[in-house]
Amino acid sequence: MRILHGLIFFLLFSAAAHAAIVEGVPKGWYLTGSSPASYVAGTDTAGSAGGKCAVIQSRSEATDDKFGTIMQTIAADAYRGKRLRLSGMLRSVDVKGWGGLWLRIDGQTSNKPNILGFDNMQSRPVLGSTQWRRYEIVLDVPQEAAGIAFGFLLSGKGTLWAESLKLDEVDKSVPTTAGPSPLLPKTPVNLDFQSARPRSQQTLVAMVDR
Prior knowledge:
This protein has one helix spanning about 1-20, and strands at about 20-25, 30-35, 40-45, 55-60, 65-75, 85-105, 115-120, 125-140, 145-155, 160-170. By secondary structure, it is mainly beta. Strands 1, 2, 3, 4, 5, 6, 7, 8, 9 and 10 form a 10-stranded antiparallel β-sheet that branches.
């Protein structure tokens, strides 16, 4: 009986939280990804820990190899030569793939991506259903940086909330969370082509229109 009551409470809570979602990308942000049409972006007050939060939720057609992200891009001028931290609170319900914050440092671009730093929390993802928790990403911004892109993403099905995002400078005593060259491995790999890469380990790097 206690298990049944707990299940009923969870279902009612989930339904109430989802009903409070107001569809529409928050001002200053935009929805993109490998399949943005498979996701809904919006805001939520009932599901927030302290006011209003943003939310990304999968549609029925979302699959494990698709992702959506709510993001924005800014000029790097104020952050060149500094160590930058993106932090924020995340909460999830029934995330079948994975989710997380992400931060990318871009160099001058022409027709090819020029990524100087990148971390999307894929090595420490948000999975399943979780309560509000603070997460952070720390990267160095080289002098040649031109832009900074950041946001939060959902891969596969589920719902992911974010609030209290903050982008600020930290001193060098705060360790970075990813190396400076995310696209280049240190040594050759799979030279005999015998190993396949699981979908769950594919890094989502080219995640926005450039």
